[in-house]
């Protein structure tokens, strides 16, 4: 999910959209997802001509700064941020990343017994 701040602004204060970059935050403790987000936003920039500046921050700080309008949005977050106390973050309903967890086992003696992470 991409969440844009409705109180943020395009990066540089030049007033010229061609020279401005939208600063987006992302969690700093998920290196694989961060690398993926950087690649995605590079490609979005190539296709649209828009510039993005991605900053890795602790999860909570990334949300707070984007919600306050200090950054343009959050590059990748979970659904439901508006209800979690971040009313200025508006969800863009196009998935940027989907995560699916898969478990492999040598036997199937646990089939039907696993229904959440706690039951592992």
Commentary on this structure:
This protein is of the alpha/beta class and 120 residues long. 22% of the residues lie in helices and 20% in strands. It is built from 2 helices and 5 strands; from the N terminus they run ββαβαββ. A 5-stranded mixed sheet has the order 3-2-4-1-5. The longest helix is centred in the first third of the chain and has 18 residues, at 31-48. The radius of gyration is 18 Å and the shape is elongated. The two termini are 27 Å apart.
What is the string of helix and strand elements?
EEHEHEE
**Low-confidence runs:** 8-18
- Oligomeric state of this protein: single chain
> What is the makeup of the main sheet?
5 strands, mixed
The percentage of residues in β strands lies in 15-25%
End-to-end CA span = 27 Å
Shape: elongated
- Please tally the β strands and state the result: 5
Q: Into which percent range does the helicity of residues fall?
A: 10-25%
Structural class: alpha/beta
Number of helices: 2
Radius of gyration: 18 Å
Chain-averaged pLDDT: 77
Strand order of the largest sheet: 3-2-4-1-5
